[in-house]
Design a protein that fits this description.
By secondary structure, this protein is α/β, with parallel strands linked by helices. It contains eight helices and four strands, in the order βαβαβααβαααα. The longest helix has 38 residues.
């Protein structure tokens, strides 16, 4: 029997990992062996996860709360599972899914059932991720259709801008000088100048 580890992931810094830590605490995992990432599960480019994989040795045991804490990309979950169980030679226990416990059923049937469950759950995890993204995109599109604007609010221009714009158009000052007078970066001045020109030529 090797060392025992735990892996915890939440999607952002403002999410709480306590629920996962409480579940892991019931399995006598040394606190120093619990690795936590506060990052999206779209891929496995996560600092704590990569550190954990480097530490793992043959016959070690890894606990995770649920398969979506490992990741949300269907293909990558299966690739990582194979790396951990085949290349690294460790066992994995998914607490929310007792069938995903590689310590059990080392025979052909047990391996088949475990692989089948893994494929279904990893598919569900990715499908949920894609559904969330689609809902977000639809929500943004609906908000834009209602006139909601995203991003930084546009800074309104005053009469000074219009005077500088006219002088710039007549070649009396450069765009950089006009921007300086208007207290804005040159890129902002040119952007607003283009929008103003388009509006008066509409």
């Amino acid at each position: 029997m090797g060392s025992v580890y735990g892996y915890v992931r939440v999607s952002s810094h403002d999410q709480n990992e306590d629920r996962q830590l409480i579940a892991l605490s019931e399995h006598n995992i040394p606190p120093s062996n619990i690795y936590i990432d506060k990052q999206s599960g779209k891929d496995f480019d996560r600092p704590s996860y990569k550190c954990l994989v480097r530490k793992l040795r043959k016959d070690d045991l890894l606990y995770i709360k649920s398969i979506d804490r490992l990741g949300r990309n269907y293909q990558e979950i299966q690739d990582q599972w194979r790396i951990l169980t085949k290349s690294k030679g460790i066992d994995i226990v998914v607490l929310d899914m007792p069938l995903l416990d590689t310590r059990r059923g080392k025979d052909l049937m047990g391996t088949f059932i475990s692989d089948l469950v893994l494929q279904v759950l990893s598919f569900v995890a990715e499908n949920e991720r894609l559904t969330i993204r689609q809902r977000q995109a639809e929500g943004i599109a609906a908000a834009r259709a209602r006139g909601v604007r995203f991003g930084r609010p546009e800074i309104p221009v005053d009469q000074e801008f219009y005077r500088c714009y006219q002088r710039w158009r007549e070649g009396q000052i450069t765009g950089t000088e006009a921007a300086s007078i208007c207290h804005m970066p040159p890129s902002t001045f040119y952007y607003k100048a283009k929008n103003y020109k388009d509006s008066i030529n509409f």
